[in-house]
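Q: A reviewer asked whether we had any structural model of the full assembly, not just the individual parts. We don't, so I'm hoping you can provide one. Inputs are below.
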Amino acid sequence: MKEIKVGFIGLGIMGSAMAMNIYKAGFPLIVYNRTRSKTEPFVKLGIPVAESPREVAERSDVVIDMVTDAPDVEEVLLGPNGVVHGAHTGLIVIDMSTNSPEHAKYFARELGKYGVEFLDAPVTGGDVGARQGTLTIMVGGKYETFERVKPILEAMGKTIIHAGDVGNGQMLKLLNQIVVGIDMLAVAEAMALAKKAGIDVEKLFTVLSTGAGNSFTVQYYMPKMMKGDFEPGFRAAHLKKDLRYALETANRLNVSLPGTALTLQLYNALVAKGLGEKGTQALLKLYYELAGVNDW
Amino acid sequence: MKEIKVGFIGLGIMGSAMAMNIYKAGFPLIVYNRTRSKTEPFVKLGIPVAESPREVAERSDVVIDMVTDAPDVEEVLLGPNGVVHGAHTGLIVIDMSTNSPEHAKYFARELGKYGVEFLDAPVTGGDVGARQGTLTIMVGGKYETFERVKPILEAMGKTIIHAGDVGNGQMLKLLNQIVVGIDMLAVAEAMALAKKAGIDVEKLFTVLSTGAGNSFTVQYYMPKMMKGDFEPGFRAAHLKKDLRYALETANRLNVSLPGTALTLQLYNALVAKGLGEKGTQALLKLYYELAGVNDW
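A: Here is a predicted structure for the entire assembly that you could use as a starting point for your response.
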């Protein structure tokens, strides 16, 4: 399997760690990043760097992109120097960014015109999971195509799920983000009331983490929130984007999601306050402000 | 310590298991329940049954009550045949029901007039925790009183927290319920959208339970929801009550809790549909109905 040539586009925090795991698994690799300086760790290892997404496609069997949002994916795949212009027989494109099922279907349709197979394969597990190769990867697209690239995905992730047709990978990721977003609301509301009611948040943490209130959010984010550490793991602006896509799909399907809608509105306010580049746990700052708590 | 005579009032699912653990720990015990038949397992063990809460108080050093809501506590403690009429020097009353900080302060004040010490000590951990003696118990009231009864609490729970003054036990419990309620909203919204978007909920469960969306709610309730099992662990009507108390306190303190407010409104609707005696996970039925999903 290792003779599959892999091209990787987008060497941010997540992408660089994922590409490095593909290299370590023994696949021939070529990389591209808009900001050239981020390719340096790869250059040092003798990994070739392409001049454009087009060149990545020309020199690969499978192209993976891990960029921020749908417009970035569109430029990388379909833009003037995009992957589509390097299309050749058997090329498979895997978009591992998070956007929407509608975007995935659009990318699949456009690339399909050039005979290129497309999979949407967003991930969860954060920068830690990317580094350790323990991501959960949710894949939409043809099952045969999924099977062909599975060894590459297994270099990056631990739980690899075929979610169904093109778009279903994104859909499954957005469902995850609904839960992640609302769980943050839960902790922020409890902490805000605790503060005003004079309850020691250390004691609140003990109660939540030992009982029915326990969650990844409590275990991983609440200690940061207690310390006033709002640096990103996962950026508030990115969660806002994901909730927006989730609601666009819900609106199209007439699914009433009042909790998700409320959570998006609060993240809109957080981004408007200039805190979009902070971690999702910065939602607590909004709650403290609404409650007149001055803690930092 | 074991010569402390304990009286236990309220032998429901939780109370009977908790009283039994006190008995097993070796404390002399007397019990009372409004519906006499529920005392039978205690009678069989030779445990005395009182005719009234008043008699329980007369024959005990420490009286524990575990009943449903504040009006029940008021009747048991302050009613015509209540604990207060059996008050004697050194009597301690522990209310382990969940109600509000305001109620706890009221009970403490009224009992204080008769020289009775009061602790509010609500629990989390459900019927399983009650049987296994692994409850989390959150105690409000004087520290010296807390220390005196701690051996009794340790017979029922694993994590025993002194939360502060009278009322703070209830407050800490209500904060827990905020998180429990909103976490349920999160799972119900994701499942409703999954259903309409054609995503396999088994796959959604895999994603949530292996990543940042993981929670007690996902682990314990989501499998029930997937099977259409809405029998109570914890009743929807009780969660509704707890959220109402949480919001009353938030309103008094001017703490803005839009997620808790929304969750209460949805549980109001669930109770209005006649589903208050179902488990809290029946919230999914409301979401499916709003989305036009017919699954059961």
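A: Points you may want to mention in the reply: Residues 15 and 66 of chain B are 6 Å apart (CA to CA). Strands of chain B lie at 6-9, 29-32, 62-65, 92-95, 117-120, 123-124, 135-140, 157-164.
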